[in-house]
Amino acid sequence: MLLLDPYYRTLVGFQVLIEKEWLSFGHQFQARTCHGTQDITTDYSPIFIQFLDCVWQITQHYPYVFQFNKYILTFIAQHVHSCLYGTFLFDNARERGIRRCVARHSHCGAMLTASLLSS
Questions:
Q1: pTM assigned to the model
Q2: Per-residue pLDDT, 104
Q3: pLDDT below 50 — which residues of the chain?
Q4: What Rg do the C-alpha atoms of the chain give, in angstroms?
Q5: At what angle do helices 70-82 and 108-118 cross, to 10 degrees?
Q6: CA-CA distance, 2 to 87, in Å (whole number)?
Q7: Largest pairwise CA distance in the chain
């Protein structure tokens, strides 16, 4: 989608892409990043980080067609593991709702947009 539709190359579009294809689709962030566990299980796999790396590779080839750069990708990658935002803490929207992480934690995309608008 990132290559086919220029909307997803904008900052808002990239946030929608992550929300739609990763968060709403039910990517297992908790299992893949081992949030909340002491040991790394067999489910550990940094698939989302690999996706961000692929996006970074594309931005290096076509830097002028993207509204975001490596700093945005680094911000997202760091906060996948920081647990500062509730966005990447659980495996699906249902678990995020049950544990009320939306109420306790801010959304990574909202924080990213706010920080860009203030600068």
A1: 0.72
A2: 44
A3: 103-106, 117-119
A4: 14
A5: 140
A6: 21
A7: 42
